[in-house]
Design a protein that fits this description.
Layout lengths: L9 E12 L2 E13 L4 E5 L6 H8 L7 E6 L2 E2 L5 H10 L1 E4 L11 H11 L4 H14 L15 H13 L5 E5 L7 H16 L4 E5 L2 H4 L4 E6 L2 E7 L3
Parallel strand pairs: 3-8, 3-9, 6-7, 7-8
Antiparallel strand pairs: 1-2, 1-4, 4-5, 9-10
Helix pairs in contact: 3-4, 3-5, 4-5, 5-6
Length: about 230
C-alpha cells in the first residue's frame, strides 16, 4: 500500500549519495534523515568537506540521491524527470548564494524580474512583483540602482528579493553572509528572521556556528552523516 505523501512538506529518508571514483565508490552522504515543517527555519552546520554542499544540491533538486527517498511539498523527487525537476527549481525553491550573482548591466528591479521572465510572466506583473519584493527587503529607494551603485549587503538583499519573487515554498540559502562583513552579515540575518517570522520556510547551509544559531533549529553534518541539534530560538 502506497504511503500518502500529499500532506508531507519536506522529508528525507535514508538518503545516500555515492560517486564512482575509478574502481572505488566514494560515499558522500550516508543514510541522511531529515524532516522539517512548513514555516520552519533550519540551519545545516558543517565544515568544508562534510557533505553539506552535496546535501544542498539534492535539497535544491540540482542532483539526485543514489538511494533513499526525498519528498518536497508532497512530491516524491526521486520519481521526477528533468522537466519536472526544472519546474521545481524555478518555482518551488528560491536560491540564495554566497555571492549575489547580480547581472552588472541590469538595475536591481530588472535583476529581480529575471526568474519571472523565465517563468513567462507578463511584463506588467513582473515589474509589480519585483517592486513589491524590493520594498519587502527594504530597497524601495534602490530599485533602479545598478550593482556597482549598491553595497554588498544591498546586493544580497536584491538576491533575496529575486529568490522570493517566484513565491517559492522553500528558501535555500548557501552561506548567505559568507562574502559580507560582520555588520552587513547581521543585517542579512535580521532580514532572514523577518522572513521566518512571516512564515517562510528556510534552510540555511553554513560552516559558521554564529550564523547557524540565528535559525530556530540546527542540525550538524560531519563526514556525510547528519545529527540533530537543538532548538536554539524556540
Amino acid at each position: 500500500m502506497n504511503q500518502d505523501i500529499s500532506n508531507v512538506f519536506f522529508s528525507m529518508k535514508d538518503i545516500v549519495k555515492q560517486y564512482q571514483m575509478g574502481e572505488e565508490v566514494s560515499t558522500v552522504l550516508n543514510n541522511v534523515n531529515l524532516s522539517i515543517q512548513e514555516g520552519e527555519y533550519l540551519s545545516v552546520l558543517g565544515p568544508s568537506g562534510s557533505g553539506k554542499s552535496t546535501l544542498m544540491n539534492i535539497i535544491g533538486c540540482l542532483d539526485l540521491p543514489t538511494s533513499g527517498e526525498y519528498i518536497l511539498h508532497g512530491q516524491r523527487v526521486n520519481d521526477l524527470g528533468e522537466k519536472e525537476l526544472s519546474r521545481i527549481r524555478s518555482r518551488e525553491i528560491g536560491f540564495i548564494f554566497q555571492n549575489s550573482q547580480m547581472l552588472p548591466l541590469l538595475d536591481a528591479q530588472k535583476n529581480v524580474e529575471l526568474p519571472l521572465i523565465y517563468a513567462g510572466v507578463r511584463p506588467k506583473e513582473r515589474r509589480e512583483r519585483a517592486q513589491e519584493m524590493l520594498r519587502h527587503v527594504g530597497l524601495a529607494d534602490r530599485m533602479h540602482h545598478y550593482p556597482n551603485q549598491l553595497s554588498g549587503g544591498q546586493q544580497q538583499r536584491v538576491a533575496i528579493a529575486r529568490a522570493l519573487v517566484t513565491r517559492p515554498t522553500l528558501l535555500l540559502a548557501d552561506e548567505p553572509t559568507g562574502a559580507l562583513d560582520q555588520k552587513m552579515g547581521r543585517q542579512i540575518m535580521e532580514l532572514f528572521q523577518e522572513l521566518s517570522d512571516n512564515g517562510h520556510t528556510i534552510i540555511m547551509i553554513t560552516h559558521d556556528l554564529n550564523i547557524a544559531k540565528h535559525a530556530r533549529r540546527v542540525v550538524h553534518i560531519i563526514d556525510g552523516e547528519l545529527s540533530e541539534g537543538e532548538a536554539v530560538n524556540p
